[in-house]
């Protein structure tokens, strides 16, 4: 899960280091504040495709798996969702 304090690093320098690993094919980042996922998928040595998901299915091509965003966030209540 991405936190406000690490999101820039996770999307930037950390991901840059991961990209140097030939075996590294996919990177999934999940928001901790809302239903939101970013999936980075390697298409070639220097090309990555990003897919942002706000509803529906997340397709993890590297492991041949799909999972719904709703299942990932099941039973999670965000502060913005709370009613006073």
How would you characterize this protein structure?
The protein is of the alpha+beta class. It has one domain (7-78). It has 3 helices and 5 strands; from the N terminus they run ααβββββα. The protein has helices spanning 7-11, 13-19, 69-72; strands at 26-30, 37-44, 47-53, 57-60, 65-68. The strands form 2 sheets. It has a 3-stranded antiparallel sheet with strand order 1-2-3, with no helix packed on it. It has a two-stranded antiparallel sheet with strand order 4-5.
| Shape, principal axes of CA atoms | flat
Mean pLDDT: 91
Strands of the biggest beta sheet: in what spatial order?
1-2-3
Distance between the termini: 26 Å
SSE inventory with pairings:
Elements: H1 7-11, H2 13-19, E1 26-30, E2 37-44, E3 47-53, E4 57-60, E5 65-68, H3 69-72
Antiparallel strand pairs: 1-2, 2-3, 4-5
Which characteristics define this entry?
84 residues, flat, alpha+beta, 3-stranded antiparallel beta sheet, two-stranded antiparallel sheet, 3 helices
Task: Describe the structure in brief.
With 84 residues, the protein is α+β, with helices and mostly antiparallel strands.
């Amino acid at each position: 899960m991405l936190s406000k304090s690490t999101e820039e690093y996770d999307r930037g320098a950390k991901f840059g280091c991961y990209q140097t690993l030939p075996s590294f094919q996919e990177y999934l980042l999940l928001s901790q504040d809302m239903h939101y996922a970013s999936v980075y998928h390697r298409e070639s040595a220097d090309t990555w495709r990003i897919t942002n998901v706000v509803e529906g299915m997340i397709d993890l091509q590297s492991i041949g798996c799909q999972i719904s965003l709703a299942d990932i966030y099941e039973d999670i209540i965000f502060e913005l969702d709370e009613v006073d």
